[in-house]
Amino acid sequence: MSKKEKHIDDIIKNSFDEQADDFDFGSWDKLEDRLDRENDVDKAVVSAYEFPEEEVSSSVWSNVNDELDIDTVWSRIDVSLDKRKRRALWWWNAASIGFAAAFVTLFFINLPDSQSIDKRYARDEQILYVDSIAHENSKGSYFLQEQIAKIDEQNVSEDGIKKKGFSKTPKGYSRGISNQGDTSDHSNLKAEKSDLEKGSAESSKVHRNNLTLDKKPDSLEQIDPLSPILIHDLFDNLSALPDTITNVDREEQLNKNYNWTAGITTGILSTSLMDALFRESLSSNSLTSSEFSIAINPGLFAQYRTQNNWVVQADLYLNYKISRRINLYEDLSYVTRKTELKYQRLHLYGGKRFLITESSRSSTFFETSLGGFVSYLSDQREYRGRTLVSDQKTLSDWNVGLDGDFGIVHNFKRLSLAYGAQVNKGLFNVMKETSTKSWNRASTLSTGLYFRLGYQF
Amino acid sequence: MENKDIHIEEQDRALVKGCLEDDRKAQEELYKKFAKQMYVVCKRYARDRDEAMDFLQEGFIEVFRKLHRYRFEGPLGGWIRRVIVYKTIDALRKENRYQEVAREFDAELKTEAQTFELENVKELKADRVRNLVNELPGKAGLVLKLFALEGLSHKEIAEYLDITIGTSKSQLNRARTLLKEALESE
Predict the structure, then answer these.
(1) Which of A79, A287, A59, A55 is nearest to B22 (CA)?
(2) I need a labelling partner for A23 at 20 to 30 A (CA). Which of A354, A417, B60, B91 fits?
């Protein structure tokens, strides 16, 4: 075939079959014409392949029928498995999101108040003192102004001085506030006279005014600048000091270290029995599948906290439930087998708290702990679908395991609210059979969330 | 005639609907309605009756699996035929039998013709044409069958055999030419 008669773009686009190279295809231009014209052979071909209809063997439909049966079953299994997986997925996602949202929300609520004056309460001394820091006046900044008039025995009466919270000392005038409400008891608070200055709103010069204790606290923190509004309130009218400073009769001391906490605890847990069936359900080729199973286990707790925020805690559950739901393909359909175990359980664990935030009213900690449990099986039931098939104890009575949890503790006055994630795993084989083969071992597993509400004392 | 066509179409719709709902009776009814026709189609590509039945069986399984794709844009029989032919070609492709159909001519058919003492010239000619088609080299015979017997376009043939449109046309041209030359030489 002459290459001259081939269009190069057609060659590239419509490459020839190499096996036909020995055949004279003629020119490309005439091919289409020939295909259109020389089609009489097709009729002979059609005629040659007109076979008469005949009966088909019954085995064909039988085989097709069997294949359709398999297809039907698989499509139903596939749909039901997907539904279960989706439900479990939604559950866990919702729990995770809820937990994360609660954690984040509480964290931001308890951010330190940047306007607050640092208040320190001596543990043993019920004296409130205030540290204030004066700042150099500069453009745009705010400054602390002492609006205490120059004390002049001639201008200000003793009563007037006392009303303002100051009393006269040999060295000057001091101001102090104690929780006894006795403003004259200022022995631990001194203010040097030289530190006091006449001030006014226009004064641009300020001085540090330190009110110091004879007995200094263990630590002092940097004080944030005071807002103009607060400053105005403080020194225009000393009686308008924020309640949190002056009103020491109203509240008990905050941040007192309560060592003990006791209350109720609840776990919302996904529980399972890790045995041969469970391991089989993990295989993607298996018709056995595990279902999501939630148990709510209320109990009591008691916790002791040391000064360094180490904690020791005991939890007692009188009706700790572990349930397992598994779907087995039996008799051409899916059947749910449910195992319910009830334990009396005692947890003991130790851990540590880490301070996150602290304010005058509350404190928030991150707490993590590890420990173990011992449990006694009080009841065991087996269900097939909704039917109770067995109420006999076939598992071991005693179980021992490990557990761990981490979460947030939120203390508000004497109340303590804690929540977080929890995992506990049984170590013993709960099967009563003596065989120790791995395929016959079964152990308990619970993962999920816990909530504790306690009273501090 | 039009009323009859509409009636047939409505029947087919009901059948398809029943099959999609996993109604085994509807599926069996659909199979029985088209089995004989499709068996004829399968025999065109098979070596023998057994193989033709295998093609028919696999073809109908594929039909029921793919039935949800049928959009009533043409006759149901035509759609079923297309699915079965494609499934058959798939089977041939796996066995690399594009070029083998002619080589392993259906001895049974030949024997049958002799057994029943066929004297019909037309049948003898048909037999001869089938032989010649099966002996065509390369993809020529298959392209000819798909074009002439199944009514596929070159684009469809090219897509399904994974060849270019140009190759489909050239192979068809080749098949016709060789077949014509062979018949004229007799």
Answers:
(1) A79
(2) B91
